[in-house]
Design goal:
Layout (H helix, E strand, L loop, with lengths): L5 H4 L9 H6 L1 H28 L10 H34 L3 H18 L7 H62 L7 H40 L9 E3 H15 L19 H8 L4 H14 L2 H22 L9 E3 H14 L7 H7 L19 H5 L2 H10 L1
Antiparallel strand pairs: 1-2
Helix pairs in contact: 3-4, 3-6, 3-7, 4-6, 4-7, 5-6, 6-7, 6-11, 6-12, 6-15, 7-8, 7-10, 11-15
Length: 407
């Protein structure tokens, strides 16, 4: 069980947020809780409906294994559909932790004041003011640099975690519904009319809501804070106003930060990112006190799977593939024409263009290619692919193994 996990017990940083953060974030957390609850309910109902929707259109003349493969394909589709639903909330949660609006506005104000200084060169205080403006400008650009790199890397990790947790939860529900349907064929009853099935669906929606409430209100802030500390260290030698950087510099930043965030001992088979998904014992006990027994059971079942070596392997492979595509297909394009680029240009790309690739659907041609594995298995229109990363992740052997184990 996660309650005995050494990876979590040693994480004192994740126990509680600083008091000033708690006080300042009440409205956001309440809003995120509402969003997570609504999404959990809507996604949970959609997943249940979606997994079973093919049933009305197909007879059961084919083998049980064929039925199972169709259901697994359905779970893959519903995971993608749920990702589309959750990505806007993910984007807002990450952006909130890395907002550069104040720094940008102050830079604009500094530029206005510098223009005023230039028109008043005879002022004896002008030289001193200019130096103080330059120092403050350096501080602001450094903060923008740190937040921009943090935003991109937090997006990578949060995107991977949401995708894998959804993979676990969708396949858990899909396997449960599939087994009940198989049993109903023997007893000639309809599983969708079973009170036990309805109870499981309702409890599953509660689990979805609570899982993503924690991730969006506590997990992502902790994740962004951990990444920020390392970003400050590895980029400290680069002055945004004076430095040019090469692709190897940005690759070094990413590799160093990955080594810090994903560090674990050779004997530790658990995911190093669990503390951003699973609450600490004290926090979790408080959250689950008023949750029904079945929801607690499903939550424990989910946590047990998240703590498995199978999940850790899938997580590592997903991160490797995501970072590889990010560096070769996104960041690499910056340096196609020039070996070196101004750091200010790279920072802007990190903050905007690179992050946007996680929220931009592929072309229609690529989308059809991505769904090639399930075309013909289902009669209905397929959901939109949320970005270019998901199709690569859902084809990974370790992800399919994780889905199969959960199913």
């Amino acid at each position: 069980s996660h309650r005995a996990s050494p990876a979590l017990k040693g994480n004192s940083q994740a126990k509680e947020e600083p008091e000033e953060r708690q006080n300042g974030d009440g409205m956001f957390k309440q809003g995120a809780k509402s969003v997570a609850t609504g999404l959990g309910s809507a996604v949970g109902e959609g997943i249940s409906r979606g997994i079973q929707s093919y049933k009305a259109k197909h007879d059961h003349g084919h083998s049980a294994e064929r039925d199972r493969q169709i259901r697994l394909a359905r779970c893959r589709i519903e995971t993608t559909r749920a990702m589309v639903d959750f990505l806007p909330t993910l984007r807002k949660a990450v952006a909130r932790e890395t907002d550069v609006t104040e720094e940008t506005n102050e830079l604009k104000l500094l530029r206005s004041k510098k223009k005023a200084l230039l028109s008043n060169e005879q002022s004896p205080a002008a030289g001193g003011d200019e130096r103080s403006f330059a120092d403050r400008e350096f501080e602001l650009w450094n903060e923008i640099k740190v937040k921009s790199v943090t935003r991109l890397l937090t997006t990578v990790y949060a995107h991977t975690l949401v995708f894998l947790v959804l993979t676990v939860q969708v396949n858990l529900l899909g396997g449960r519904l599939f087994r009940e349907e198989q049993e109903s064929q023997v007893s000639n009853t309809l599983p969708q009319d079973s009170p036990a099935t309805d109870e499981y669906r309702n409890s599953h929606q509660i689990v979805l809501s609570r899982t993503y409430h924690y991730l969006f209100t506590a997990g992502i802030p902790l994740l962004a804070g951990s990444i920020r500390q390392k970003v400050q260290q590895v980029t400290s030698a680069h002055d945004v106003l004076r430095s040019d950087v090469r692709l190897k510099d940005t690759s070094y930043w990413i590799e160093s930060i990955r080594n810090a965030i994903e560090r674990r001992s050779a004997a530790d088979l658990l995911s190093p990112l669990l503390k951003f998904v699973i609450p600490q014992e004290d926090s979790e006990t408080e959250q689950t006190t008023n949750v029904d027994e079945l929801a607690n059971y499903i939550l424990d079942e989910t946590y047990d799977l998240l703590e498995s070596p199978t999940f850790a392997r899938a997580e590592r492979q997903c991160l490797d593939v995501t970072f590889d595509q990010l560096q070769t297909k996104v960041l690499g394009k910056l340096f196609l024409l020039d070996d070196e680029m101004p750091l200010a240009t790279v920072v802007t790309n990190f903050q905007k263009s690179a992050v946007a690739t996680f929220h931009k659907p592929p072309s229609h041609k690529d989308e059809m290619k991505n769904w090639g594995g399930v075309l013909g298995m289902l009669d209905e229109p397929l959901p939109s692919v949320p970005n270019d990363y998901i199709p690569k992740l859902e084809r990974l052997e370790s992800v399919n193994e994780l889905g199969g184990v959960c199913f």
